[in-house]
Amino acid sequence: MNTAGLPTAYEHGKRLTAPGSTIDPILVEIVQGTLASVEMEVETAIARTSRSPMIRDAHDFRAGIHDRQLRKLTGRSYSALVHPIVRDFPLEGMAEGDVFFHNDVYESEGGIGHLPDLCVTVPVFHDGAVVAFVQAFGHHDDIGGAVPGSMPSNATSVHEEGLSVPPIKLWDRGVPNKAALRIMTRNSRMPDSLAADLDAECSACLMGARRLSDLFARYGRDDIETAFDAILDSTTETYRREILSKIPEGTYVWEDYAEHDGVDEPRLHTQRITLTKVDDAPADPETNFKGGARLIVDFTGTAPQAKGPINHCGDYVGGNFLKKWLAPILRNLADTPERMAELDVNEGIVPLIEMRFPEKGTLLTPIYPAPTNARTFVILRLLGVLAGVVAKAVDGQMPADQETIRYTGVYGKDRDGNDYLMREVLGGGSGGRYYADGEDTIHVVPDSRNLPTEFTESRFPFIVERLGLAVDSGGAGRYRGGLGYEKHIRMLRDGHFMSIADRSILACWGVKGGKAGMPFSVVIDPGGPDEREVDALADAEPVKAGQVVRIRTTGGGGWGDPLDRPLDEVERDLVWGKVSLEGARTAYGVVASGGKDDVSVDVEASEALRARLREERGDEPFFDRGPGYARLAAGATASEYDWM
Fold this sequence. Notes:
Strand content: 15-25%
Structural class: alpha+beta
Number of helices: 14
Strand order of the largest sheet: 1-4-3-2-5-6
Mean pLDDT: 95
Radius of gyration: 25 Å
Low-confidence stretches: none
Shape: globular
Number of strands: 23
Largest sheet: 6 strands, antiparallel
Distance between the termini: 42 Å
Oligomer: single chain
């Protein structure tokens, strides 16, 4: 039973065909290409017909295609789960034209992390039977709750975060449930955009279901389902051969932290992974797992659930959602970056990972009704924890820490006296890699983006005076961390600033000699009489007309010793404006002068400075967490797990 008392013994995760079934490999390619094409067509339709800035412009939504065993077939990005739908609505009772809806975190089987993520699911039919599912879920502007945007930073209960809807039938045989839609829009501060977004998502998924029905009609159910198994089998074998083989057998431990929960004072909220690589895992014919290499990911040691909204419900259906969420990190072990980009993450990785969760009542196993709206602080940090523990296993051949997602925005009354809400998901720098610098201002949500200035200035009462790179924000290293954004917004009318952000104290860590990046910060009225720094968790910070809000997002951690970075690469960073003259001196030991157009590096002075800096420093841990860690760790500069 799950926390809502509902049975979870529905069938899922098994093969559709007998082990050893064969199929023409050309047909497998056709099916795989069609699945990717349909998924992209669904997302394109949603982007073109939705209304809210978060869905239409920021593209904070995902589509996914699943088979009748609820296995995710596509690998372009993560998706929610079909499990809660099939748990509550047996396949035999579904009909063409049905659309199912849910956003209830505690009844989503781990697939929905917070209430603004609304999910629609459409069954695909062939010869009167359900053969697959098309699904879309995305972050919507407002679903009710204590504050605009439905993400109250100091929530102590999920009831404060908005309207929770367990799995329901939103459309019945092509007929929308107007009563349910009216309830949802009535609870939203943005009813028109919510209604339009839901209509776009339902219509797009119904279109995708028709496309897949055509595929089954063309080639027949037996061949298509054999192709589905072949696609997932290929992923399993590829990851076992090309990825897991790079990790030595053994057990490795590392941890990282969220820094605050919006309720208690900032402290270290631990997220720990004990990673064990085994090469003698038993076979499982139902999933076609042939035995051999497997990873055991144990979250024992993770902190108790927080009072505030940073909890994530991960311990459902064996951690199925988290397996697919975390697996992209493993692609960094591929032989080349080009090969890494070719590797999909679909249900084929699930048999390769076993997850072990602590007892109920932790950050990853919260007890209802613990709040969850800022659960990104946990699930995004877990990406870094997995990267760190794998880095310990492979002598640092993994990227340094990446950017952390954050939601920032303003709201108030526009020129006509109407309510408005502008939110966006600004990116940050990714970590330096063992072969290259990190990327600047990447967005961790695939295909998402910042809102265009032309759009926001025409719709909302503010001016974007600057949008550029935050100088010196990337962690120093042989390979520098990517830079974060610096954005200046000047308000034209009184309003309020909101922020759901992490990494304002604890920076993105550097690895193998690389240094941590710069943390997130927000300053209102910089250089003015009311200059003040805003907490990273803020619901309603007042901003007067004429004042500027300065947002600086995180820089990625550095990789390798910054004193080993070639002088010409530091000079290039100076010319590009990514590193300042002072930053070059203090972080890289490079003495330079002049402006961007006439940078001059003093080679002799730089070599002397680097020699002195090397002589002065002592033993350093394998991971650098930056100065903020000491503030929350009673003066300690590293944890016991940061040393090799």
